[in-house]
Amino acid sequence: MNSADFVSIRVITHDVARLVAFYEQVTAGEARWATPDFAELVTPSCTLAVAGSRTLALFGGDFAQPAANRTVIIEFRVADVDAAYERLAPLDCEVVQKPTTMPWGNRSLLFRDPDGNLINFFTPVTPEALERQAR
Fold this sequence. Notes:
The chain is α/β, with parallel strands linked by helices. It has three helices and eight strands.
């Protein structure tokens, strides 16, 4: 059996431009726009795609609901969670958890994007977490 490569996650939204602008600010990256209804923020390890709700018709249905996620956390490894927290303060996004060191060794910051999706910025800080990252 062939393995599958996880390469991206796609967020569906009613306002692509607003959500893309938010993610460009929080990641300090620049999106690649394919159409007004689809853009991607490409990182070395994975891609975050943002698509408008109108794109759902291309898949044959209205099966995803923008701004309704309550289970998925979009995670980004950053060099310094505390510095990221300070940098995000002017964006006035909802902070769910200020920087906290988790039992598994990552320092973590949880906040929400404008559609309410949960985002985790994390930095491995313990020797064990740093070792897991190196694998």
